[in-house]
Design goal:
By secondary structure, the protein is mostly helical. The chain has 15 helices and no strands.
Length: 333
């Protein structure tokens, strides 16, 4: 059987299983009714914040990580195309972004490593949001709050160490020289090459101006994401819970759910993550399930609109990227 067909069927299966879990105990017709009763003004506002958030992420990529090698407008279109492609089972968005950035004169490897750095930064932010949210959850056992706080501090410390090693790569190489003889499997993993690739990607953050721009627009982008979820909480009429904690927890867990590689546009895992977040802070099952579908829905609507605009503006078609992984050939680098 064709490998792509197998991947598609596996994606449908995974999405189906997670959707069943997300909807367990909540009638689908009630969720549909709840979505239909959502305040249209707050919902429209949420869609607009998704668009603003994407612009902030484009500025991070253009001004910070790529050091203005691609204009903000071009970076925005490329980023939006990537997000649109990531809604498809093959998830070729990141590869497509690297290919399109290469067409703008950025070396393919430079573009690819900048995207890796994006992911590292976002993971740290999500861990921090999760730590803050868990510490604010009502009646959370003190040990849980302490452990989540420790994980948040460890994530920041690890990121700072990596940036420091990128600034002073000789220190990293000395550590590897000391470490490799003590780890029998180190040579098979090609640790030196892997570490060099990571440090090359992080090197922009060792430059103060680019680091400040990248981190500032990261904070703006994620802050807007929290506003998006808060707007949707207001749209469906959530009351008597901490809306800010709900936004922190839902955005962080939903972001981690997207990392599941096999699903259809993250449908299922995304809704399940938001339901877990909502019920953790005492939200009703109906409201938390509704928010899972609504949050995902407004995001996909925004990605679709922006992605189509990007395709038209750049002058490419989706068909060009159905084999985007093969398009990432050495000549692009």
């Amino acid at each position: 059987m064709n490998r792509r067909l197998l991947l598609f069927l596996a994606s449908v299966l995974v999405s189906g299983i997670f959707l069943w879990l997300a909807l367990r105990g909540v009638p689908l017709d009630e969720v549909v009714t709840s979505i239909g009763q959502a305040d249209p003004a707050w919902t429209l506002f949420a869609i607009l914040t998704v668009i603003l958030g994407m612009w902030a992420r484009a500025l991070r990529w253009s001004w910070g990580l790529l050091d203005r090698r691609v204009t903000p407008v071009k970076a925005s279109h490329i980023l939006n195309i990537g997000m649109l492609l990531n809604q498809l089972p093959l998830r070729a968005g990141e590869v497509a972004r690297s290919v399109l950035a290469a067409r703008q004169g950025v070396p393919f490897v430079t573009a690819a490593t900048s995207i890796v750095v994006e992911r590292l930064i976002d993971v740290v932010v999500c861990v921090l949001m999760l730590a803050v949210a868990v510490a604010r959850v009502p009646n959370a056992p003190p040990i849980i709050a302490q452990v989540s706080g420790a994980f948040g501090a460890a994530a920041v410390a690890a990121f700072v160490v990596l940036v420091g090693l990128a600034r002073y790569p000789k220190v990293a190489h000395r550590l590897l020289i000391w470490l490799e003889p003590r780890l029998p499997f180190a040579h098979r993993l090609h640790l030196t090459r892997r570490v060099d690739e990571i440090l090359d990607g992080l090197r922009p953050l060792s430059q103060p101006r680019r680091a400040i721009l990248s981190l500032f627009w990261t904070a703006v982008g994620w802050g807007i994401s929290l506003v998006t979820f808060y707007a949707l909480e207001r749209a469906v009429g959530v009351v008597d819970v901490d809306l800010f904690t709900g936004a922190l927890l839902a955005v962080a867990l939903a972001s981690f759910s997207i990392a599941i590689p096999v699903s259809v546009a993250s449908i299922g895992p995304f809704q399940g993550a938001v339901r877990v977040a909502g019920e953790t802070i005492g939200m009703s099952a109906l409201h938390s399930t509704t928010l899972g579908f609504l949050f995902h829905g407004v995001s996909i609507v925004a990605y679709a609109i922006l992605g189509v605009v990007g395709l038209i503006s750049i002058g490419v078609t989706l068909r060009e990227f159905t084999g985007a992984r093969r398009a990432a050939s050495p000549k692009e680098s």
